[in-house]
Structure formats: structure tokens, C-alpha cells
Amino acid sequence: MSAGKSTSSKNIAGIAILIFMFVAAIAVIVLAGNRIKLRQMLLSPSRPICNKGDYRVYFKQTHRCYVEGKQGPCGQLMILHGVKRDANQSDLFGECQCQTFGQLGCDTRPTVYWQATKRCYFLFDQGPCRKGRWLVINQFNNPTCVTIPCPSEYNAQSQISRRDSADSDPDPKFVYSSYSKCNLTLTQGFCPDGEIVHFTSTSFRPLCRKATQECLPNYSNSFDFELELNITNLEVYPGE
């Protein structure tokens, strides 16, 4: 009697093991199929990854879709821009780029990318630099930190700019330096009479425009002034 019960228990245990192995095998097959399906979606131009109705782009680092033109997974002062990896690819892949403000040719404050913190900062601002230094573009067109030649003017104007620019586009009026001398944008500065200095979203160099003109359609008639930096003040940061 006990021998029969023992045999029956063994049979039940064996069946349970077989059922468990069967379920586990099904789970493995399903997971493998999902991986293959995801790979096919990533490689096939006929299978969109993201819903195109809401202008979403696929961000590879997080394997998720985000709305194009928004910050999404990007760092501060950055937006997600959609690009095609292949001419035959129907999907747009998201790349983080520095946010630009204002229309083309209009007064604004440029932004630059800082590798060590993986985010963007405003030019001629402290940004990732130590106190008493600000962010500029050197002669190799790379962002770097240098000593602020006019800390009093910078601190005074920064307080005004931050107060006026809360939750809005940056104040186009800010302190910048050229030839180790500080000036204020939207003033005459080095420009001829009747013109003022300004920056645009596409140039790291100060430009001149007519004081009565708010936006420039192009820069062909603008006085292009080359920025000189004090290279002896360069500060090396990790990731540069």
C-alpha cells in the first residue's frame, strides 16, 4: 500500500517537473521571439519603432521613444533632435543637441556643450567653471574655462539677466570679453557709430548690426569681429 503511494507520488512529482520545464521552455521561446522582433523593428525600414503621429524619435541609449524638440533624456539646455541613420530607414533616431534660442540672425545668447557634465551652458557664463571663471570658446573652437577679466561687471549683469530670463529665452544683453576687455552686448562696443554688438545662435563671435534693426536675415553685411582669448588662463577639466 505504501509502495503504491510512493510510486504515485513520484509520478506526480515527475509530471510537475515536466510541466515546469515545458513552461520554462515556452518562456524562453517567447523572450527570444521578442528580442528578434525588436531587432527586426530596429533594422527594418517598413516597421516603425515609434508612433509617428506625435513626432516621436527613438533614443538608443534608453531604448525608448520621446517627443522630438523637447529635452527628453538629454541634459540641461539640450533638446532631442531626430536624424536618419540610413537613407532607407523610416524611423528617426534621437540625438541630443544644445538648445538654440531666437530666430536665425536674431539677438540671443549662444550655448555650448560640456563633455564632462554631458549638458550645455551659456557662453560667457560660469557654467561648469570654478568661481571667478567663465565659459568661452578657445582658438580651437572648443569650450574652456578662463578667468573672468571683469568680475564686478559680470556679477552685476548676471543678476539682472537671470531675473529677467526666468522661465523664458535668455537675455540677449550680457557681458562678454574681447582682447581681455569686457563689453556689454546690445551697446556700441567696438562697432561703428549707429551699430551695436550682438550674438546669434549660430555664431560664437560678436557681430555688429544696425541699432534700429532687431533681426538680421544674414550676416553678409555684418562686421565680423574675431574673439581673442587669454590662453594663459586655460583650465583643463576631465573629459576635455
From TrEMBL:
One Pfam family it belongs to: DUF4789
InterPro entries, per the entry: DUF4789
Residue ranges constituting the DUF4789 domain according to the UniProt record: 94-159
Record keywords: Membrane, Transmembrane, Transmembrane helix
Domain of life: Eukaryota
Keyword Transmembrane helix in record: yes
Residue stretches spanning the membrane: 12-32
Cross-referenced PANTHER family: IP06524P, IP06524P-RELATED
Name by which UniProt lists this protein: DUF4789 domain-containing protein
Organism expressing this protein natively: Allacma fusca
